[in-house]
TrEMBL record:
Record's keyword annotation contains Hydrolase: no
HAMAP family: NADHX_dehydratase
The protein's name in its UniProt record: ADP-dependent (S)-NAD(P)H-hydrate dehydratase
EC assignment: 4.2.1.136
Protein role: Catalyzes the dehydration of the S-form of NAD(P)HX at the expense of ADP, which is converted to AMP. Together with NAD(P)HX epimerase, which catalyzes the epimerization of the S- and R-forms, the enzyme allows the repair of both epimers of NAD(P)HX, a damaged form of NAD(P)H that is a result of enzymatic or heat-dependent hydration.
InterPro entries noted in UniProt: Carbohydrate_kinase_pred_CS (IPR017953), CARKD (IPR000631), Ribokinase-like (IPR029056)
NCBIfam families hit by this protein: yjeF_cterm
Complex formation: Homotetramer.
Family: Belongs to the NnrD/CARKD family.
């Protein structure tokens, strides 16, 4: 394998698009987050809030009924649409075609949720981020990946990656298998970890931001929201994935002197998103 390209500030400044002074919420993209199940509505809240706080104009969140009040009270700026089912997602019906969709955090693996994901993949054409249980479901139905739009962004942590590509015997085999997977299914794989690598066909990129403060519940859910937001704003998937992982890690680097490792939570990532974006302004 060639040595990875580094995702550093110089590279990010080449692709970052500042918000236009004539922008309005309609030009900033409408994102949909499909997430959550009973006991894991927090994942939907974190992904939705981070989506909104990364510059997206409008965010609609699709959740099972049990999440309705939680979402509306915790993030009044976000619109919600609920499934017929109380505890988990069974039938994704969207009120609009958005500019991007993030699917997976906290959805669980109920059979009805698996069917809902399959039906969604059959009809969806919007740019897509797949995370968490959406990846776990797809791991057991790998041919469904043939249904996703080209350059869909997959964000597995190491265990989710293993479920998708199978076990590896060395780091180099892990990269080889992920490159082959990215080529075969025409997807971008964000290999989350310390550090995070992005695999886009045969190209490998290594992120330079982030630290162990991110080793906390929900930090991946927040990344899904950020990536979905950037896609909705019109960033091409190859740029959205780089900018998203860079900003996500940068929040932890900026926050660390104030929070230390221990008190940093996924909500701290969201809190520091503004400072991370400001680092990109000249
Ligand atoms: N507030 C909420 O609503 C929250 C909801 N959430 C939602 O919960 C769902 C389940 O998500 P999940 O990732 O916890 O479960 P799962 O896929 O079984 O992975 C666990 C296994 O993976 C491994 N592993 C993980 N990271 C690794 C690493 N860096 N490096 C190495 N190994 C690593 C780890 O292995 P271990 O080290 O324990 O052997 C363990 O076996 C999902 O939908 C998510 O969105 C969460 O986001 C939390 C907040
Ligand atoms: N030690 C670490 N250094 C840098 N980044 C880390 C570290 N530990 C975790 N992360 C990042 O935190 C996120 C964890 O995602 P994930 O495991 O999906 O969390 P969750 O499912 O709880 O939301 C990933 O973006 C990962 O790269
Ligand atoms: Mg996760």
């Amino acid at each position: 394998m060639k040595s990875p390209y580094l995702i550093n500030k110089e590279e990010i400044l080449k692709l970052y698009q500042p918000v236009d002074s004539k922008a309005h919420k309609g030009t900033q993209g409408h994102a949909i987050i499909i997430a959550g199940s009973y006991g894991k509505i927090g994942a939907a809240v974190l992904a939705s809030k981070s989506c909104l706080k990364s510059g997206c104009g409008l965010v609609t969140t699709f959740i099972p009924k049990c999440g309705y009040q939680i979402l509306q009270i915790s993030i009044p700026e976000v619109m919600t649409v609920t499934d017929e089912n109380t505890n988990f997602i069974t039938n994704v019906h969207l009120p609009l075609i958005p500019q991007a969709i993030g699917f997976g955090p906290g959805i669980g693996k109920e059979l009805a949720t698996q069917k809902a994901l399959f039906e969604f993949l059959r009809v969806n054409k919007a740019p897509l981020v797949l995370d968490a249980d959406a990846l776990n479901i797809i791991s057991e139905n790998i041919s469904w990946l043939e249904l996703v739009p080209e350059d869909t962004i997959l964000t597995p942590h190491p265990k989710e990656l293993e479920r998708l590509i199978g076990k590896w015997n060395s780091e180099s085999e892990k990269f080889q298998k992920t490159i082959a997977f990215s080529e075969k299914y025409k997807v971008i794989v964000v290999m989350k970890g310390a550090p995070t690598f992005i695999i886009n066909r045969t190209s490998v990129y290594e992120n330079t931001t982030g630290n162990a403060a991110l080793a906390t519940a929900g930090s991946g859910d927040v990344l899904t929201g950020i990536l979905t937001s950037l896609l909705a704003q019109g960033y091409e998937p190859k740029y959205a994935s780089k900018l998203g992982v860079y900003l996500h890690g940068l929040t932890a680097d900026l926050a660390l002197p104030k929070t230390g490792y221990e008190s940093f939570t996924a909500s701290t990532i969201i809190k520091y998103l503004g400072k991370a974006f400001l680092e990109l302004e000249n």
